[in-house]
Amino acid sequence: MRRDLHEKVMGGLERSAIHSSTFSQNDMAMAAGLATLHVLDEEKVVENAANMGEKLISELTRLKGKHDMLIDVRGKGLMIGIEFGPPKPLNLKAAWAAVETAKKGLFTQLVVMTLIKDHHILTQVGGPGVNINKLLPPLIIGEAEVKMIVDAFDDVLTATQKFPGRVWGLSTELVKEALRS
Q: Which domain holds residue 57?
């Protein structure tokens, strides 16, 4: 900040604690903050996040017509939640019931594990006892990465339609662990 502003805000002992933080009152932190704001503006990072998020949500939503376990896709910008629910085919319903009986939300953990193992895409379960996958890609994501993520979800959800198969095969250890705890 300019010296005259600094003196007005922090100029005396009685005013020194008005606006403080361990790392904020130094030139390097100020320069880093200003540089960050400059990059966000110049590279239109916020606009990119909004545009790519809209595209990603739209493309993932399109997969609902192909995969009955995909219940909902929602989000804002690049903060996206993908909700799963029980399948319609009887053999898959039994597999779903088995993993969900062991621990609610375990199906989504199978999706998370398969995405990281097969596609190197890091996601998270939305919380305890829910079948929601949290997808939080970087703000600088581009169209190629959006396609890669959508293709990966399509591949994993296609694999969940095969029982037994590579996704359901992961459930054995998870169910054992869930029953132990």
A: 47-180
What global pTM score does this model have? 0.78
Token pair belonging to 42: 């110049």
Contact of 168 with 111, CB cutoff 8 Å: no
Judging by DSSP bridges, how do beta strands 79-84 and 132-135 pair with one another? antiparallel
Q: CATH no. for residue 136? A: 3.90.1150.10
C-alpha triplet 91, 127, 129: angle, nearest 5°: 45
> Tell me: the pLDDT tens digits for 129-177?
899 999 999 999 999 999 999 999 999 999 999 888 888 887 777 777 7
Tens digit of each residue's pLDDT (9 = 90 or more) over 83-93 = 999 999 998 99
Residue 18: pLDDT band (50, 70, 90) is low
Three-state SS sequence of 78-137: CEEEEEECCCCCHHHHHHHHHHHHHCCCHHHHHHHHHHHHHHCCCCEECCCCCCEEEECC
Report how far residue 80's alpha carbon sits from residue 58's, in angstroms, rounded to the nearest whole number: 11
Encode 115-139: b = buried (16+ Cβ within 10 Å), e = exposed. beeebebebebbeeeebbbbbebeb
95 and 28 inside one domain: no
Residues 98 and 16 in one domain: no
- Indicate the length of the chain as a whole number: 181
